[in-house]
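re: that complex we talked abt at group meeting.

here r the seqs, copy pasted straight from the sheet so there may be weird spacing, ignore it
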Amino acid sequence: MAGSEVKVLGTWASPFALRVHIALGIKSVKYEWVEENLEAKSQLLLESNPINKQVPVLIHHHKPICESLAILQYIDEAWPSAPSILPSDPYHRAVARFWAAYIDHKWFTWLKGVASAEGAEAKKAALDQVREGLVVVEEAFGKCSKGKDFFSGDRIGYLDIVLGCFLGWLYVAEKRNDVKLLDEEKMPGLAAWAIKFCLDGAVKNVMPDKDELLDYANMVFQAMAMAKAKLNAPPNY
Amino acid sequence: MASGSVADQEGQVMLLGFWFSAFVKRVEWALKLKGIEYDYVEEDLANKSTLLLTSNPIHKKVPVLIHNGNPIAESLVIIEYIDETWKQNTILPQDPYERAMARFWANFIEQKVTEPIREALVSQGEQQEKKVKELKEAMEVVEGEAKAKLNDKTLFFGGGNGVGYVDIVLGWTCNWMETIEEVGGFKVLDPESQPQFHKWMANVREVPFIKTTLEPKEKLVEFFRMVRQDRLGLVANK
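got the structure back, here u go
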């Protein structure tokens, strides 16, 4: 059974797992999706990723591959027939990898910082930082896309996937904080790109519904707030 | 000055760096492994050149590799670029699964060893203790991998007798780790609980093109002491 050759361990809400969904879709690879419960991780997950115990994990021919960027590049190399995910030219590949590192290590850290910021001032600073980061990426989009629809040109590729997977969580941050982050005026290129990305054939059927994601986020954050309140609550005499 | 000693890739190769930077040394090791001639430009930390600022406007950091006028930044990105542009003496493995493993380890090293040790260098007290604890746990994982992969015939993570991607990414530990421990006043290295890792470090130090690039420890200690004092606002202890 061809489908069982490729397994993905992930969660529906994980942007990193979404990257793997999209990449396999681009390559038209059949795979089995295993929805993990992060509160009760499966034996398969713990054995496949003993070091980080995280999703996503791609299992191909019974060999596990971890870390979403390593997985994306593996998918491109293990299924080398078109369409390709990374550009073919080494310099353009380097540019794509550079921006992937910026998005993952700088920008996504700032996006997470919005949730952990306490107080109105800190929240505003965190949100401003996310927005400024998007302005930087807007410029990169202009240079990479050269007037076409996507970072990779006519079709979605590496950088589109790397940034696009966060669109749902960006929406969550906007709604929870009642602000606009992906601003059509400040980032017209990215705003247009986001719409096209979400409509792409490899994306639209696997991207989580953003309002479902918002409900989920609200639930998670409320649970976290309640747990924190319990910790801080005065003792019950 | 036109360089490019290998027939299939012409074009000038320039590397912008700082003498004390482990990230710069990684790129030099990759270039030397491939036998690529390059012009090295020593930048001034306090007075970065226009070339650096325009080549890496986002981070304004070294290393930056400039090839045929195209700037590439971020040491791991540069190393992959070097490997893909010059085909001799491969750095990453050929097999896609092995490549994925190498990239996984490079990411682990950066997140769990390289980043925390930089943070431990410029922190103190509880904050530093937290980083040191993280480092010790990470080193257990590294020792585990060294035990699993290395032996008398396989000296390096790259397999066999030659250094590969993971060796180049982790290689800074052979010189900078002791330095930062001394400056920061903590201990992560332990020959007793990390015997394979220590064997590997000793082997890395002896690789000819790595050995010639290693800066004297006293010079590095003096420099990083300044960095720590500057970041913590401490009075200079001479």
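couple things i noticed - The mean pLDDT of chain A is 95. Residues 90-116 of chain A form the longest helix (27 residues).
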